[in-house]
Predict the 3D structure of the following.
Amino acid sequence: MNTVVLLVDDEVPFVETMTKRLTKRNLIIQTAFNGTDALEKLKGDSAIDIVILDVKMPGMDGIETLKEIKNIKPLTEVIMLTGHATVETAIEGMKLGAFDYLMKPCNIEQLMSKVQEAKAKKAKHETKITEARIKEIALRRGD
Amino acid sequence: MENIRYYQSLTRKMVIVMILVSFTPLILIAGIIGYSFETSYRDKVMAHLKELVHKHQQNVDGFLHEKLCNIGLIANAYDFGALSNEVFLQKTLSNLQMMYGDVFVDLGVINPKGVQAAYAGPYKLTDVDYSATDWFPQAAKSNYFISDVFLGMRHQPHFIVAVKREDNGVEWLLRATIDFEAFNNLVENIHIGETGSAFILNRKGEFQTNPRIKPLPDRDFFIRAFKLKEPRSMPITVGQDYTSTDNIAPAPKEPPEQETVFTEEAEYAGKDVIFVMSPLKGGEWMLVYQQEASDAFSDLWRTRKLALIIFFIGGVAIVIKAFLLSKRMVQRIEQADREKEMMNEQVIETGKLASVGELAAGIAHEINNPVAIMVEEAGWMEDLLEEEDLKESENIEEFRRALQQINTQGARCKEITHKLLSFARKTDPKEREIHINELVEDIVSISEQKARYGNVKINMHLGVELPIIYASPSEMQQVFLNLINNAIDAIGTQGGVIDITTRKEGDFVIVDIADNGQGIPKSILPRIFDPFFTTKPVGKGTGLGLSICYGIIKKAGGEITLNSAVGLGTTFHVHLPAPEARVKDDAEAREQ
């Protein structure tokens, strides 16, 4: 099963190139160019595993978007992309539940490995939840 | 240049004001008091001299009057016949000498023809004819007569007192010679100071006494003085001559004081001379007291000299003090102005730095995104080169190399922008964990460019297992950046080495920054951490670098010291507290 990634950045060329490169690496990429757009996409498509989120965006910024994402889909992992000046915000993002952060411009291999880790973590969570549900069902049945 | 002139004129003005303010009251007081003192002292001295002369005038007049009375008494008591007897005359002389001392030298009776009929005394003057002498005609005219001093027939200075009597229509004279010495003593003992002396003159300006000191003016001066005072003189008379005007006074009539004594000042041979004069013997003689003004007023001159010396010394002191004080004050003002100027420069500089920092941060951030896109595009191209059909292209290796280069340069841009951003960031005084070695490495990497221009090599000797310190990273960066920049500046352009050592000592982490530059002269060592103290030319250094370093390190609980030797170099030691306890606490906290 291929990983579905939502790429959010206000820089259109960046998003386009990244889409191409990540698609080539067997990821399914969806794109959004601002925070609101990203949340819409997330609500509409439950298959999204990971969000790659730029911290500095006009309008709704990365941190706010992150909060909303964690509200709507707590299981979705978020990788923050940031310039150096916003390392503090990135750290704040981590506190809010982001999986990790990378500095722009980033190494594609590094990004890939982060995506895979995030995917693994999410899978683990999902497995746990599934197991919990099964247990619950089993318990209910056992009643 | 303009500034120098401004401070010079300021100094000048201050000096002038100080001198004026100090001297004006001094001169006024000295002038007023000096004038009053001099006037009153002069008056006092003159009054004293007048009194003295007056007393002597009375004395001399009294003496003459007394002698005249003595002779008059004898002439009245005895007639011509009795006195013509030389034995009797001798006896009378003896009586007189017994009663009045040796004032009377001799006695003589002169008949109307001017021939001395009888004589008693040490000389043989019987039957001497006096009719041809100067005095006889005058004596024959008045009842009482006192002659001027003359040598006469005995060739000794003397003068005579004569009384005219008339017996049975025949006029005769009783004459006595007065001892010159006795008379001379009357005035000779008036001498005050070194130049004060008294003498008696007659109308012709001839001396009637022996002056102790030769009078300075010529005769004309005294003759003139005589004429001036003539109407005020009073004659010496005996008996009815004066009783007609004054019934009570037995002595020579005494006119009001100011009329008898007068003073005169004149300059002779470059000296001011005071004359106090009083007419004697009915204005025929004059008692003159002469003294040089400098002698008479010697106390005054001395006081004045002392005052002048004090005034002069005081004046010199005031002028010197005024100069020094103004100079020092202007120096202070100059320094204050300079500091103010530097402060202004510093404020402007800080503002400039802040805006430059913001600008840099903005630019760095804006550049970051395009660079990211470029790198991604290059990455995409690399991805595409993996496709089968492109792999066969003969330039495939060149493409790969070019793309790799784009990646490398992109990474370099990234590093630059990150560095810019980290230093343009506003200083954050918040304490954080700092690994001192990392901090030092960061700073050295930043300073390396400048060091390279200065031909300076920076060596790092980093200690191992150094404790973590707690301080504001941006402040620490500032401290070390400052110290390293100073070291580079100290080395100058001839090249040199900076050794940076980190080590642990007790509860402190110590960073030594040693350069082999010019060193710091001992004279300025104590001021090295003073704010605004700088050895750099105006406009180049603010003089704040080290003082800020000092402030930051002190605040962090550390210490900053230095060793310096001129020509060998300078070493700064920064001691930063790294208490073990705190490290442990922190470790525990992290474990929980």
DSSP finds 16 helices and 16 strands in chain B. Residues 429-591 of chain B form a domain with the Heat Shock Protein 90 fold (CATH 3.30.565.10). Residues 238-258 of chain B have pLDDT under 50 and may be disordered. Chain B touches chain A at residues 361, 364-365, 368-369, 371-377, 379-380, 383, 410-411, 414, 417-418, 421-422, 425 (CB under 8 Å).
